[in-house]
Design a protein that fits this description.
Helices cover 40% and strands 19% of the residues.
Length: 91
């Protein structure tokens, strides 16, 4: 399972594609309505970043689809506190 953060204009369709190709995705977005919407398409919902990380297997892969600004920098800093050395963040 891959973790996905950001269900906006680009993130939501990307998760749809991943699900269409039978990849298991846990999804988080700051807007819970987007999480509920993508859940209906097969994603595992996560309403907090901590829950998203907890849903993932031992070796975690988290894909960020956030604006290239402070939001991304802040999210990466937050994730670093929750992840281990060999986990992967895709930005």
């Amino acid at each position: 399972m891959i973790g996905f953060i950001g269900l906006g204009r680009m993130g939501f369709p990307m998760v749809q594609r991943l699900l269409k190709h039978n990849l298991k995705v846990a999804a988080f977005n700051r807007n819970p309505e987007k999480v509920i919407e993508i859940e209906k398409l097969g994603a595992v919902p996560a309403f907090t970043v901590e829950k998203l990380v907890a849903l993932l297997p031992e070796r975690k892969i988290i894909w960020l689809m956030l604006p290239a600004d402070k939001a991304t920098d802040t999210m990466i800093r937050n994730l670093l506190n929750l992840l281990k050395k060999d986990d992967i963040i895709i930005d």
